[in-house]
Design brief:
The chain is of the alpha+beta class. The chain has one domain. The chain has three helices and seven strands. Strands 1, 2, 3, 4, 5, 6 and 7 form a seven-stranded mixed sheet that branches. Strand 3 and strand 4 form a beta hairpin. It is globular, with a radius of gyration of 15 Å.
Length: about 130
């Protein structure tokens, strides 16, 4: 079951996600082994087709960190290992429940966040 954590900013979410992945892998992160590309997800993700994260692998562990978006949690960082999954959502909210900040935004604000996220992911082949 995925653990969902609300964070106060993108930077806080990223820093907590990196710290959690290091904790789960049992070491600080070294060179990544694979770039993760966002999947289409039925066309609903503003990150579809973009480079959104990286995978790490050692003889003892596997894990990845990636930027993600879904209509319920809104923008968030996912941390995944073979045994655990975490979502670090941003921005934070005083609303009850993880991902509450996204639910509290108006449609115009949600559209602006989705447009911004499209700009974050690096399109494949455009480096």
């Amino acid at each position: 079951m995925e653990q969902v954590i609300d964070c106060g900013s993108l930077e806080e979410a990223r820093n907590k996600a990196v710290k959690k992945l290091e904790e789960l892998l049992g070491s600080s992160l070294g060179p990544y082994v694979k770039v993760v590309v966002g999947k289409d997800m039925g066309g609903s993700s503003p990150l579809a087709g973009t480079e959104v994260g990286v995978e790490y692998r050692s003889s003892k562990a596997w894990g990845r960190i990636r930027l993600d978006f879904d209509p319920n949690k809104g923008p968030h960082y996912n941390v995944e290992t073979r045994s655990e999954a975490w979502a670090f959502c941003f921005p934070a909210s005083s609303h009850e429940g993880a991902g509450g900040a996204w639910a509290s935004l108006g449609e115009e604000e949600k559209a602006a966040v989705q447009q911004w996220m499209r700009g974050i992911g690096q399109r494949r082949g455009t480096r």
